[in-house]
Amino acid sequence: MAAPAVGGIGIANLPNQRHKIVAKRGAHFTIMVVGESGLGKTTLINTLFSTELSSSKNYSRRHVKQLDKLTEVEIIKAELEEKSFKVKLTVIDTPGFGDYVNNRDSWSPIIDFIDDQHETYMRQEQQPQRGEKTDLRVHACLYFIRATGHTLKPLDIEIMKRLGTRVNLIPVIAKADTLTQGDLANFKQRIRAVIAAQNIRIYQPPIDPEDTQSAEHARLLADAMPFSIIGSTEDVQTADGRTVKGRQYLWGVAEVENENHCDFRKLRSLVIRTHMLDLISTTEESHYENYRQAQMETRKFGEPKVKKLDNPKFKEEEEGLRRRFTEQVKAEEARFRQWEQHLIAERDRLNKDLELAHSAVKQLEAELDNLQVGYGRGSQRR
Ligand SMILES: Nc1nc2c(ncn2[C@@H]2O[C@H](COP(=O)(O)OP(=O)(O)O)[C@@H](O)[C@H]2O)c(=O)[nH]1
Ligand SMILES: [Mg+2]
């Protein structure tokens, strides 16, 4: 049986939003995924593409930027087109940070990357000829939270605080299928509370008082944050015979596009269908503008970003110090790496155990449900 025809992908609605950006030429949209490794960042991106692009012909991946020797980002470009409205989509897929015990160094390249894009754009704006600019300013940053069922980790709080003042931050709960619906709802509430208590700035879909329908939609999206996510590009069969994108378990199928299973549709709606232009204009008018003003206050017009080690007088002395320091650090580092490897292995093992335990709980719950249904029938027969 043929799948029911799906309507357009929805981006043709974008120009109807009340926005300053004239969308005739189409939009440039850059989205970034951030979070510990193994949380399903790459899978979510592929899921977005597999539900959003009919073919992968306009879809290219390349490694562009080596941030440092441990962290590099992958830049994926795609073109979405509907009713002659085009979106040039760039996805920045980062590897996980938090793999390194030395945490600060693992996330600072990500913050630097975001600042660097603002810097690059600003410098181009200051040039006499302001033609086509390279623009990789991040319009939406998805931050992946591990579905532990407990609360946000101190590292999550640190990073989210820094991201929230720089970009439109959209927190998501990764691998929602590893928690029961009840645990997931509690977890979400707890995270919302921490976000509020810690003053973490997250993206707020604007509420238009003159347009009740879109205001209602925006409220629905805001209330669902942080979005719970199930990622999968696999087609699986549900018990009632539907073929869906999802993850197959002994207890059933976790469906990507089922609103009762996760908030994938809401997230997709927010970033691709209804709020893309707002994400772009708030980046331009708020985040980029903040960066520009902060920079203007600390340096003269046209002057490059201040480098710390530019004074020639101290250069030689510094070099000597640095050499000795480097030797010491190298010795310590070797010892440290070994310890780190051990911790990573241990963490991965514990996370696997946790996932298995969650899955076992769900299986037992399903069996219990079945037993109760069976028992119900049994007692009626008597
Ligand atoms: N249970 C579950 N597993 C997922 C989900 N998304 C991805 N995974 C799995 O998690 C592992 C890591 O995924 P990946 O996308 O490479 O994570 P990344 O390191 O954050 O890019 C893979 O085995 C995926 O199949 C999800 O929503 N639920
Ligand atoms: Mg990845």
From TrEMBL:
Keywords: Coiled coil, GTP-binding, Nucleotide-binding
Gene3D superfamilies xref list: P-loop containing nucleotide triphosphate hydrolases (3.40.50.300)
One Pfam family from the record: Septin
Superkingdom, taxonomy of origin: Eukaryota
Keyword field contains Transport: no
Domain Septin-type G: 25-298
PANTHER family xrefs: SEPTIN
UniProt family annotation: Belongs to the TRAFAC class TrmE-Era-EngA-EngB-Septin-like GTPase superfamily. Septin GTPase family.
Name the record gives this protein: Septin
Organism: Exidia glandulosa HHB12029
